[in-house]
C-alpha cells in the first residue's frame, strides 16, 4: 500500500470518484436533473482543487508510474481550476440537451482526471493511456452538442487524435528501443551518459513526438482540425479545449523536449524554433480573414500556442515559468470571451446560414447592450496584448525572456505577430462600437444569461482587468514549482 501511495494522487482519485457518483445518482435518483449533476460536478472539482494544498511535492505513486512534482502541481492547478470555471456555463437559460444527461458530467470529470494523470507522470505508457482516456471522453462531449456540425467536429477530432496517439506511441517505442526504458527521466539519464548514442533513432522519435503532441497543441502544420472542431463544439467546450488539453500537452512536451532539444546537432531545437514561429505567424494570418468570431478565436488560440512554444526554444526556467503564467492569463481571457459567445447563443442563424457568431451579429452592440460590448472589448484588448490587461504582461514577459537569452530575431518575430494580432481583435471592437446595429432588439446578447454565467463572466473580467494585482505572487509561486521540478 505504501508503494501505491494513494494520498499523493487524491485529487485525481477524487475526480474519478466524482464521475462514478454522478452516474450512481442518475441510476438511483430518477428525478435528478441538470442542477443536481452540475452541482455534484462543481463540488467534486472544489474538493479536488482543495486537496492540491495538501499534496507533498515530488511524491511518487503506483510503483513510480505517477509523479506529483512541481510541474505536475502547476499543471493540476490550471487543469482543475479551468474545469471548475467552465462547468458552471452548463447553467444556461436555454435547455441544451447535452446538459440534461448525467453522462455529460461524468465524462467531463473522467476527462479532467485523464488530463490530470497525463501531467502527473514521467512514464510514456501512462501518459499515452491518460491522454486517450481524456481524449475519448472529449470526443463524446463534443458530439453531444447535437448541432449540424457537432458530429462532424467529433469525427474530425477523433481521426486526428487517433493519428496523434499513434505517432506518440511510435515515438515512445523508438525511445524504448534506444534506451530500454519508458521513463522520461531514465531516458534522459541514459542518453546524457551515452552522449546521445543512436542519435538518428532519437531524432526520428523526436519528430514523432513533435507530430503527435503537435496535433494536441494545434501546432502548424498539425492545426487544420482546430477551427472546424471549435465551430462544431459548444462555446464552453471550445473555450475548454483552448486551455486544458493544451496545458496538458505543454507539460508533457516540457518533460520531453527539455533534454531532447539539447541533442548535439540541435536538430530538435531547430524544429521547435521553426514550429513556434510558423504557428504564431500562420495562426495570425488565417485569423485575419475569418468572418466568424469563434473561428477567429480558434486561429487566435493557435497563434497563442505558438507564442508560448518559444519557451521550448529558449529552454530556461524563466521561460518555462512564463509559459504557465501566459496560459493562466489566457485562461481568464478566453473564459470571458467564450462565456459571452455562450450567453448570446441563439438557435436560429439569422445573420449567417453557416456561422453561429458572425461579426455582423455584434454590429452596433454598444447601443443595444453597452455593458456586454465594453466587457467583450476588454477581452479582445487583452488578447491583443494591450496594457494594462492580462495578456500584455504575458507577452512582455515572454519577449523579455527571449531578449535576455539573446534570441533577438525570435523576439522581433513575436513583436511583429503581436502587432498583426491587434487587427483582427480590433475588428470585432469596430463592429461593436462603430457599425450600425444589426436587425435585433438587443435581447439576443442575453439569450442564455443566468446568475451562474454572470458570476463566471464577472470572475473573468476582474481577473483580466486587475491582473496587475495578482500577477507577481502567481509568478513567484510558479517559479518555485517549476524550479523544484528541475525545469
Keywords, separated by commas or semicolons:
globular, 487 residues, 1% strand, 71% helix, two-stranded antiparallel sheet, mainly alpha
Work out the strand percent: under 5%
Q: What number of domains?
A: 1
Q: List low-pLDDT spans.
A: none
How far is the first residue's CA from the last residue's CA? 30 Å
Taken from the alpha-carbon principal axes, the silhouette is globular
Average predicted confidence as pLDDT: 89
Oligomer: single chain
Fraction of helical residues: over 70%
Described by strand count, sense and barrel closure, the largest sheet is: 2 strands, antiparallel
**Rg of Cα set:** 22 Å
Describe this structure in words.
By secondary structure, this protein is mainly α. The protein has one domain. Helix content is 71%, strand content 1%. It is built from 20 helices and two strands. Strands 1-2 form a two-stranded antiparallel ribbon. Strand 1 (59-61) and strand 2 (66-68) form a beta hairpin. Helix 3 (70-86) packs antiparallel against helix 11. The longest helix has 30 residues, at 150-179. It is globular, with a radius of gyration of 22 Å. The model has no long low-confidence stretch (mean pLDDT 89).
Amino acid at each position: 500500500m505504501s508503494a501505491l501511495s494513494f494520498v499523493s494522487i487524491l485529487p485525481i482519485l477524487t475526480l474519478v470518484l466524482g464521475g462514478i457518483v454522478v452516474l450512481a445518482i442518475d441510476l438511483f435518483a430518477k428525478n435528478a436533473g441538470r442542477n443536481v449533476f452540475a452541482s455534484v460536478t462543481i463540488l467534486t472539482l472544489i474538493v479536488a482543487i482543495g486537496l492540491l494544498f495538501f499534496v507533498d511535492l515530488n511524491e511518487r505513486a503506483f510503483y513510480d508510474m505517477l509523479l506529483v512534482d512541481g510541474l505536475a502541481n502547476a499543471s493540476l492547478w490550471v487543469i482543475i481550476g479551468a474545469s471548475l470555471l467552465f462547468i458552471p456555463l452548463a447553467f444556461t437559460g436555454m435547455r441544451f440537451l447535452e446538459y440534461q444527461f448525467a453522462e455529460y458530467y461524468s465524462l467531463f470529470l473522467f476527462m479532467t482526471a485523464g488530463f490530470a494523470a497525463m501531467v502527473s507522470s514521467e512514464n510514456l505508457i501512462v501518459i499515452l493511456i491518460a491522454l486517450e482516456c481524456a481524449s475519448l471522453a472529449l470526443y463524446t462531449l463534443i458530439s453531444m452538442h447535437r448541432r449540424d456540425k457537432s458530429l462532424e467536429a467529433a469525427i474530425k477530432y477523433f481521426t486526428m487524435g487517433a493519428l496523434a496517439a499513434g505517432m506518440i506511441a511510435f515515438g515512445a517505442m523508438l525511445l524504448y528501443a534506444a534506451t530500454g526504458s519508458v521513463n522520461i527521466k531514465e531516458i534522459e539519464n541514459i542518453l546524457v551518459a551515452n552522449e546521445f548514442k543512436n542519435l538518428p533513432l532519437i531524432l526520428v522519435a523526436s519528430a514523432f513526438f513533435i507530430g503527435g503532441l503537435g496535433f494536441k497543441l494545434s501546432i502548424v502544420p498539425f492545426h487544420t482540425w482546430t477551427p472546424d472542431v471549435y465551430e462544431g463544439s459548444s462555446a464552453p467546450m471550445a473555450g475548454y479545449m483552448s486551455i486544458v488539453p493544451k496545458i496538458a500537452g505543454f507539460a508533457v512536451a516540457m518533460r520531453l523536449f527539455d533534454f531532447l532539444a539539447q541533442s548535439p546537432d540541435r536538430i530538435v531545437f531547430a524544429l521547435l524554433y521553426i514550429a513556434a514561429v510558423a504557428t504564431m505567424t500562420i495562426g495570425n494570418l488565417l485569423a485575419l480573414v475569418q468572418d466568424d468570431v469563434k473561428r477567429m478565436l480558434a486561429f487566435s488560440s493557435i497563434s497563442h500556442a505558438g507564442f508560448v512554444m518559444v519557451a521550448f526554444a529558449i529552454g530556461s526556467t524563466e521561460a518555462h515559468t512564463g509559459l504557465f503564467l501566459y496560459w493562466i492569463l489566457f485562461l481568464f481571457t478566453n473564459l470571458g470571451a467564450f462565456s459571452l459567445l455562450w450567453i448570446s447563443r441563439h438557435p436560429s442563424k439569422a445573420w449567417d446560414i453557416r456561422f453561429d457568431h458572425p461579426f455582423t451579429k455584434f454590429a452596433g452592440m454598444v447601443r443595444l447592450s453597452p455593458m456586454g460590448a465594453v466587457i467583450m472589448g476588454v477581452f479582445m484588448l487583452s488578447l491583443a496584448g494591450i496594457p494594462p490587461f492580462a495578456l500584455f504582461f504575458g507577452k512582455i514577459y515572454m519577449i523579455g525572456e527571449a531578449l535576455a537569452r539573446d534570441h533577438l530575431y525570435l523576439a522581433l518575430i513575436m513583436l511583429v505577430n503581436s502587432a498583426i494580432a491587434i487587427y483582427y481583435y480590433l475588428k470585432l471592437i469596430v463592429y461593436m462600437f462603430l457599425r450600425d446595429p444589426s436587425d435585433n432588439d438587443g435581447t439576443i446578447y442575453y439569450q442564455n444569461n443566468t446568475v451562474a454565467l454572470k458570476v463566471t463572466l464577472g470572475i473573468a473580467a476582474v481577473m483580466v482587468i486587475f491582473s496587475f494585482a495578482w500577477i507577481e505572487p502567481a509568478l513567484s509561486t510558479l517559479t518555485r514549482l517549476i524550479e523544484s521540478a528541475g525545469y
